[in-house]
Amino acid sequence: MSTFLEAIHERVVIFDGGMGTCIQTSGVTADDFGGPDLEGCNELLVVTRPDVIADVHARYLEVGCDVIETDTFGAFAIPLGEYDIADRVHELNVAAARLARGVANDFSTPDRPRWVAGSIGPGTRFPSLGQIRYAELRDHYEAQTRALIEGGVDLLIIETMFDLLTVKAAMNGARRAMRAEGKELPLQVQVTMELTGRMLPGTEIAAALAAIDPLHPDVIGINCATGPVEMGEHLRHLAAHARMPISCIPNAGLPSVVDGHMHYDLSPEGLAEHHERFVTELGVNIIGGCCGTTPEHLAAVVDRCKDLTPAPRTPMHEPGATSIYSLVPFEQDTSFMIIGERTNANGSKKFREALLDADLDTCVQMAKDQVREGAHVLDVCVDYVGRDGTNDMDEIAKLLATQSSVPLVLDSTEPEVMEAGLAWLGGRAILNSANLEDGEAEGSRLDRVMKLAAEYGAAIVCLLIDEEGQARDIEWKLRIAHRIHDLAVNRYGLEPSDLIFDALTFPLSTGDDDLRGDAIATIEAIKRIKTELPGVFTTLGVSNVSFGLKPAARHVLNSVFLAECVNAGLDSAIVHAARIMPLNKIPEEQRAVSLDLIYDRRSEGYDPLTKLLDIFADVQATEVVREDRTDWTIEKILSQRIIDGEREGLEDDLDRARAQGLEPLFIINDVLLAGMKVVGDLFATGEMQLPFVLQSAETMKTAVAHLEQFMEKADDGGKGRIVLATVKGDVHDIGKNLVDIILTNNGYEVINLGIKISIAEMIEKAVEVNADAIGMSGLLVKSTLIMRENLEELNTRNLSNIPVMLGGAALTRSYVERDLREVYEGRLFYGKDAFEGLRVMDRLGDIKRGNEPDDADWGRVPSESTVPARSGTKAVTPAEDLPPRSPDVAADNEVFTPPFLGTKVVKGIPIDDIAAYINETALFRNQWQFRPETTDGVTETDEEFKDRIRSMLRSQLAEAKAADMLIPQVVYGYFAVNSDGDDLVVWTDATRSEELTRFHYPRQQAAPFMCIADFFRPIDSGEIDYAAFHIVTMGQRVSDVAAKLFEENRYQEYLMVHGLGVEMAEALAEYWHRRMREDWGFAQDDGPSLAGLFRQQYRGGRYSWGYPACPELEDNERVAQILDAGRIGIEVNEETGFQYQPEQTTSALICHHPQAKYFVAR
């Protein structure tokens, strides 16, 4: 073992700081580089100005750094080629290494060695985007590394990596160089995480670790792009899961331009403080500095950190596959890992034909469709007779490398085809497959596939086939499994967790007596493999068991067999996810007969195979069969298209309708709108859910857009005009926009003014366009008061002739149609949903056109309340008699001291960590508005419903990651506080000598007289107490994407993206509250389940402003001020209505008092 590796396992090792930073301040000119054309090529200075570079090395060693990096970050053929000096790779790297070696030797002593790290950077080409091929890049890195080894470096640092495929090229190039030079050196690999919290293509830290770990670097870490603040969460993940030492080499904060020069704002003391925490709390082994750091920074780091002992770690390895975006663990929490089987030229006719036609767009779409249907991983097979599989795999893998959000299984009988795919995949792939059919000698299939897995860090599907054929009985299967396992581990250096055994099964459908026990053997083999080979995983091509049966029978037998295998320990299955049926949806007889066939329960006069064939003799496939429409009129076809939301071929049908003499206006008003009316009726009865309503609206929009070109422009407002707006002070617009969608696509002209709209602006527009109605929307309780004021203003201006609709989560029908009708002199309606708004507009239109008599009372007469009076209403206590503190709230609870006082910013939180805290009920039912389905009178259970929608959630999350749509950030802090009556006093520090701010909270007017301030020690108690505050955000981009989807009439996607953003912000609040309870020392009081956390089964409480116990939205600005929320881009002020921007942001006060729970103050 090298002395460097020994040191990092014993103590903190400190690298140098920024090379480029020191060069920039050294006074070098263009002449020092060799002329203006070469200026900026820092790597040249090792031969043109070696004194400058040697001085930089010496300055870092003088302050106590253990390691200096060579000035070779860009010294390979690609970056040097941009200066036309690619032929100088060997010269520059040898010179740089020798220069650094000489300086390091001057400072080294027997008891204090100094090491030289050969710096290898990423270059300027992006292999995952096809800008350079893997093999070419790997060979360039090999040439650079050979020269660095020749020059005498002690280790290699592959750093600032923004693309995982570059990491693989650099590591494998370095290892080739080591073999060629006959010398092993440690490999330190560092990725760069951007401000988004992901690598440049969108790679999360979990995916980076899972892809790099199988390549066995000696050190893994993070450097560049950000300061230490933004690296904390990534280091936390590495601390929890990395099995090798960790490095952290940050910039000196984030850069800004000051007086025309780049400036980094982090002081030497600040860098040292962060490193001290990373070492002592997270167990980081290697620290240093990148851009903006100087010898002064490193002097502070050495002084503060050189004698620290890294915190001990017990990392938990997560075996899995990764796309370029995220990790999919082989062990799924709530399911088996679904390997989609449709992107297979042998198993899918559609995929094969698309491949033969070179229709790669269809191939990619099929991949995406499988993800939406629930696949965690995709099996990709291009093997087909007469085709060049290597070329086909090269083309399809190049596309799927970035366009598939989930990992790939490269499925081929030819190792060279697998390698063609591996050469495009930065993530961790699975190879399908290896077996012993042609033995285990060098050059055999098994040998070649195992070597590919080792080189590219892939996992392998291992088939239970040997020289005698496919194993049939249990002992034969296990004999092969043990043999492959031992070869993989002992000969090829793989781990058990790299192996996924396919126990294989023969069809049960042939009736062959020899095959009747095969399903039993497969199930037993799965059990024994999991028992006898700890750490390995299992998979199965499930559909083979039913080969030859009718489709309907196949779906049932496959589903029952899969359930039995999963119960036996199966980890994954190659299936068509959409064709797997829940057992409760399979009739009892079909399920029982399938089990009898699987377990070969034949008896006298009973053969389960015969019985299964009889049951399905007249049963068609369970998939939807399109009804025959050949005798339908074109009007009926078009109307049904709207109902079904079917756009494919829509324009052809519209043109056919016109060719038959139907006028465009007639098609819209009498045909298409008739379909939309059916949609509305189905929604009203609960037979159609909102996502599918929006699909119909998109189809309507597409049809109208096509027909408009054949119509004369008319400014008649269609069926009517309405002005819509979210009221002043409110930024929520999803409800208003849904009303816009439904009304627009039912023939109305909608003027959507947006958010935070004053009544003056609404009136001005309504008068200008002669609107038939005004619609006001608002989510906040405060918005209901604004609406009342708006109605009074309409009265004052004598505009009560304009009907008004009000909608929003804080409104109730009784408040609008009873209380507010007492206020407004005109017609006033409650819009419970978009279709209720449509019904109001339709009736207003009928009255206006004389199609219906005008009922003067409609919309004007206050309704009778149908809300029962509260029983046992408590007497309200006069204000002067209210107690200063609730007698029911304990004042002697334990006060927990927080981990620090002050504020911190957190960035780069992994999306998957947040997603684990999503409230699925809120997302699936409230945001996306799905509902359990009823089939043949049986309604889905809640868990079945959620399981069905989870595949959509996985797909949405995967697409959000790929598009960098979600950028989670947190600012939080702990403060010394006390209560002062109904106020919470926040102190500047623990001395409590100066107020920072104070918050006022309402007190209940009846027993138990609770107020949030009661949960803290009173100011006159003399005791200190503590409160926490946090603001969490998912960033602006998700709102921008949602707005763009709305503008583009992609209504269904708009609903999904908006809902995801809302609930991810809530999930982040829940997740960070949990993290704060952990740090604060009372997370052990949490309930056992996530659902329990949503019901406040934890110590203390979390209060957000705008609710009855803390109603003052203005306090949001106060929270932002004490947390300095501008650091994460948060804006809140009177202009924003005291609501946070970006929209998907929320804040909270966090109390540790055990009685702090939700209550209503009134």
Low-confidence stretches: none
| Quaternary state of the chains | single chain
How would you state the average pLDDT, rounded? 92
Distance between the termini: 71 Å
Percent in helix: 40-55%
Radius of gyration: 34 Å
Rough outline: globular
Number of strands: 36
Name its key features.
single chain; about 1150 residues; alpha/beta; eight-stranded parallel β-sheet; 39 helices
Overview of the molecule:
The protein has 39 helices and 36 strands. The strands form 8 sheets. An 8-stranded parallel sheet has the order 1-10-7-6-5-4-3-2. A hairpin with a 7-residue loop joins strand 32 (983-987) and strand 33 (995-1000). It is globular.
Would you spell out the secondary-structure blueprint of this structure?
Layout: H1 3-8, E1 13-14, H2 19-24, H3 30-33, H4 45-48, H5 50-62, E2 67-69, H6 77-81, H7 89-107, E3 115-120, H8 134-151, E4 155-161, H9 164-181, E5 187-191, H10 205-212, E6 219-223, H11 228-241, E7 246-249, E8 255-258, E9 261-264, H12 268-282, E10 286-287, H13 295-305, E11 320-322, E12 327-329, E13 337-340, H14 349-356, H15 360-373, E14 377-380, H16 389-403, E15 408-411, H17 415-422, E16 430-434, H18 445-456, E17 459-463, E18 465-466, E19 469-470, H19 474-490, E20 499-502, H20 518-532, E21 537-539, H21 551-568, E22 572-575, H22 588-598, H23 608-615, H24 634-644, H25 650-659, H26 664-684, H27 690-708, E23 721-726, H28 734-744, E24 749-752, H29 759-769, E25 773-777, H30 781-796, E26 804-807, H31 813-820, E27 828-830, H32 834-848, E28 902-907, H33 911-915, H34 920-927, E29 934-935, E30 938-939, H35 942-962, E31 969-980, E32 983-987, E33 995-1000, E34 1025-1033, H36 1037-1047, H37 1051-1080, H38 1090-1094, E35 1101-1103, H39 1115-1123, E36 1145-1151
Parallel strand pairs: 1-10, 2-3, 3-4, 4-5, 5-6, 6-7, 7-10, 13-14, 13-22, 14-15, 15-16, 16-17, 17-20, 20-21, 23-24, 23-25, 25-26, 26-27
Antiparallel strand pairs: 8-9, 11-12, 18-19, 28-31, 29-30, 31-32, 31-34, 32-33, 34-36, 35-36
